[in-house]
Write a structure and sequence with these properties.
Layout (H helix, E strand, L loop, with lengths): L13 E5 L2 E5 L5 H16 L3 H16 L8 H7 L2 H20 L3
Antiparallel strand pairs: 1-2
Helix pairs in contact: 1-2, 2-3, 2-4
Organism: Saccharococcus thermophilus
Protein name: Tail assembly chaperone
């Protein structure tokens, strides 16, 4: 019998540093997280103003960073991250997911 080791698809955690604080998130999202992120992305597309878009972006970052050992609130994200930094967290995470999903190993 041939066993396919799915643990090989799991990569190193992704770390984000801001203000001397390091946030670690697994590089393998759960199905639930993926569905939540897609739902938020759809809301961002329909957002009527910049304030709503930034709040939704903070919600995405909160979800991503809360996969680790600690839970990160939306308010904490809004306090510690600029909109540019929030966009970068989402962008880096999405790039990492693409790399993992296209890796032939």
């Amino acid at each position: 019998m041939n066993i396919i080791d799915l643990d090989l698809l799991v990569s190193e955690p992704i770390q984000f540093k801001i203000g001397g604080e390091v946030f670690e998130t697994p590089s393998s999202p759960s199905t639930q997280l993926v569905l939540q992120m897609v739902a938020i992305e759809n809301k961002v597309k329909k957002a009527k103003n910049a304030e709503e878009q930034i709040h939704l972006l903070a919600e995405m970052v909160s979800l991503l960073l809360s996969q680790g050992e600690r839970k990160v609130t939306i308010d904490e994200v809004l306090e510690k991250f600029s909109p540019v930094q929030m966009k970068k967290v989402v962008e880096v995470y999405q790039q990492k997911m693409t790399e993992i999903n296209t890796n032939p190993n």
